[in-house]
Amino acid sequence: MKDLRFYLNKALKYHFALGAFNFCNMESLQAIINATAKTKSPAIIAVSESAFSYMGADFVIALAKVEKKQNPALFLHLDHGKTYEICKKAVDIGFDSVMIDASMLDFKDNVRLTKKVVNYAHKKGVLVEGEIGQIKGVEDNVQSKDHVYTSPNEAFKFVKQTGVDMLAVAIGTSHGVNKYSKNPTLKLDILTQIENLLPCFPLVLHGASTVEPALIETFNNYGGNLDKAKGVSEQLLLQAVLQHNIVKINTDTDIRLSFTSQTRKELTLNKKEIDPRKYLGKGRNMAEQILTYKINNIFKSAGKR
Ligand code: G3H
Ligand code: 13P
Ligand code: ZN
């Protein structure tokens, strides 16, 4: 069966990455479904804890059913689950994979909680992502002030002791629109050390949005005010995909930004428009366009379904 594990292994073998795309409403999910279906790309649709409570479990499951119909290679994933309870709930209602993010805890407690989630999820055939190190950034439920890079030795011990299926590594990316004050960098040397200890193991990059300057310009030109925005460089992401074992790339900010900048533009230009389909539809199209570009040019997952 072509399940998530099948595609993670395929991505490791052929050096492409599954986009893990966050959604929080129908339009953002439609943008993801359209972009991945048209490019015949396998991908993950991710729901954060806060998106989960915003939409409600019933809506998440109902929307996810549509997703499988239109692209059978889309997999539903809980992003940054902070507790055993929320991970268990996601497993119970049919998610394909969950992330237990216990990276704020010390190593021993992170292992203990992650292992507990793994034990439960694996019984039901659900894959688990863990995190070691801390990814900088502030977004609702996901907060860390400074980078704490992943220690390769700890990563090795963590994977062996917990039995996780994917590992999120902290190598210099961060969540949100302000990722760097200077030029974007990635600690690819740390990645290499992790890969030497954990050969052929699926690694995950969070905070991987590229934060296109053109989108920021649109956002700011139409009444927004985003300062000093800077994302990860395409070149570095490509290196992580083509020369390393990064097989899942988390992207939320680029979807929000494309969606909202275009919606902002439509609302500003059409001051009498009251029909949400008119402006949300334009936001959805822009998000689809950005995702299609990323799938083709960065993740290299087009045609891999
Ligand atoms: O990694 C974090 C995601 O971007 C989720 O953010 O909790 O605001 O939905 P959120
Ligand atoms: P961005 O904020 O860079 O899109 O990262 C999203 C993410 O890591 C979700 O888990
Ligand atoms: Zn993340």
Order of neighbouring strands in the sheet with most strands: 1-2-3-4-5-8-9-10
Name every ligand kind in the structure. glyceraldehyde-3-phosphate, 1,3-dihydroxyacetonephosphate, zinc ion
What's the CATH superfamily, by name?
A: Aldolase class I
Mean pLDDT figure:
95
Distance between the termini: 13 Å
Order of helices and strands: HEHEHHEHEHEEEHEHEHHEHH
Structure summary, number of beta strands: 10
Structural class: alpha/beta
- Beta percentage is 15-25%
Portion in helices: 40-55%
Question: Over all CA atoms, what is the radius of gyration?
Answer: 18 Å
Rough outline? globular
CATH class descriptor? Alpha Beta
CATH architectural label: Alpha-Beta Barrel
Low-confidence stretches: none
The largest pleated sheet is described as: 8 strands, parallel, barrel
Count of DSSP helices?
12
The third-level CATH topology is TIM Barrel
Number of domains: 1
